[in-house]
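Comment thread on ticket #2218

A.B. wrote:
> Attaching the input chain for the structure job we discussed in standup.
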Amino acid sequence: MPIQSNEKNQQRRQLIFDAAIKCFKSNGLQKASMRNIASEAGVSLGNVYQYFPDKAALIKHFIIETNAEVTQIYDELDSLLPFKLVMKEIIKGYITEITEEDETAIIYEIFVEGLRNPAVMAIIREHYLEEQVFTEKLQQAVDKKRIKLPAGAQATARTVLATIESNALSVAINEDFTVKQAINDTWKVVDLLIV
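C.D. wrote:
> Ran it. Output below, let me know if you need it in another format.
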């Protein structure tokens, strides 16, 4: 019985989280209330608070889920294929995804909220691991002599991630700048940084 109960709790938690994401997408992070989330999930407000005591807990859960996805993507760099070939595919997938996904807006909103709210910034600092994971993968590749990084692993990771995000944002802002151009421009930067 406890296994079923735990599974049911996990399903309920996921239902509430999915409803929160839906509310964040449609209303924005600021305007999405716990009451809206409860209504969207079809559960009581008390039920929402049982699983997520506040919006900060939902933000933390979102970041942790995002980290799991990001880690899985960067694990592809461990493949036996040439490092830069795998990196090119990751960049292509990453830029395509962030230019098409509504969840990208949620990530930006979380970062903006972190600038206003020290508690949210603390969550970001503690749990947002993309740069760290990418830096570690780059350093592992250097240690295995698969690549050289004249600027170092951390500077390379920061620069590549900033370039990806900047080019993806440019796709959204500039109608003449295509996803293909964003991928090609990002690849030019990566080609300079990863030898």
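A.B. wrote:
> Thanks. Noting for the ticket: The chain has ten helices and no strands.
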